[in-house]
Design goal:
The chain is of the alpha+beta class and about 130 residues long. It contains 5 helices and 4 strands; from the N terminus they run E-H-E-H-E-E-H-H-H. Helices cover about 45% and strands about 10% of the residues.
């Protein structure tokens, strides 16, 4: 990173192979005029999860973010931080209301669990069906 650029407030680890995820990241990157977010594509062949102390399967399970102090955040909280970084604080504030927060958590969990299937990227390992009884 160049000395003239501000330090990112958040590093976001996203699945660049997911069309919906890529679209959201591209939109937020355009809105991030002050460079507060660093986007890291975990689908890039050059990316190494072990180099950052985690596993590819953990990162693929749900959205992860890392703060400048090294703290990890996951799920809906990553989206809240991204939207706050681009100036959409009122949306973030609303997303913290108890019922809305719970609905967002459940909705995101369902999406994250089914993301590969929903985006047509199932493999025998990624979208295993339960064994018949």
């Amino acid at each position: 990173m160049s000395a003239s650029l501000p330090q990112a407030e958040l590093e976001v680890f996203f699945d660049g192979g997911c069309p919906l995820c890529r679209r959201e990241v591209n939109l937020l990157a355009r809105w991030d005029r002050r460079g507060k977010i660093r986007f890291t594509n975990i689908d890039d062949p050059a990316f190494s999860a072990t180099a950052i102390g985690t596993s590819q399967s953990q990162l693929m399970a749900e959205m992860h973010g890392r703060l400048p102090d090294g703290t990890w955040i996951k799920g809906v909280e990553v989206f809240r931080r991204m939207y706050a970084a681009v100036g959409l604080g009122p949306i973030v504030w609303l997303s913290r209301w108890p019922i809305i927060s719970q609905l967002l958590d459940v909705g995101y969990w369902v999406f994250a669990k089914n993301r590969l299937r929903l985006t047509g990227r199932c493999t025998p390992d990624s979208c295993k069906l339960p064994a018949p009884r």
